[in-house]
Amino acid sequence: MRRKVILSSGNKHKVKEIKDILKNMPFDVVSKDEIGFEDFDVIEDRETLEENALKKATELKKLVSGIIIADDTGLFVDALDGQPGVYSARYAGEHVSYIDNNNLLLKNLKNIPSEKRTAYFKTVVAVVLENDEYFMAEGILNGKIGFEAKGDNGFGYDPLFIVESTGKTLSEISDDEKNKISHRAKALLNLKERLEKVAGENISSK
User: Fold this and answer.
1) Known SUPFAM superfamilies for this protein (predicted)?
2) 0.90 cut: is pTM over it?
């Protein structure tokens, strides 16, 4: 019997990305929305990505059976002392659009030259097993912030984030390419060996 993995995110872009990355793993991967938890939401009020990711995973674990995967991602801009960081999703305020966040970022970097617009994305993924054991991993993608949005394949800060190794924004590259180099892909790749081990184990709930 295949084990079920439930993603704590309701973000369709993020869910698709994670499903694509895990598609060759021997799990049935579903999002919380697909199993009737569209209204489930967790206030991300912790001080670190690690704490937020684990909070999202453990809160959903209280409601469902299966392996829970939750992540938290931040964009850290050197010229802004690491902002927006843990507040990336709500940089311009609560319930704002991606465009609102991007516009504020561009405004705050208005007079910063290209060579000083270095930044990195960091994703932390938390996995909580059926027996409440958990483990975590992170992935980092280095780059810099452009002066204008480019590309239409992506979400969040992707149109502004120029990948160090390609010279293109995350929105200018294909899903397949992104899933090989992205911060989220790296975090999940760092978990792959552990997840493969989990796939072969018979772990019962407490």
Assistant:
1) ITPase-like
2) no
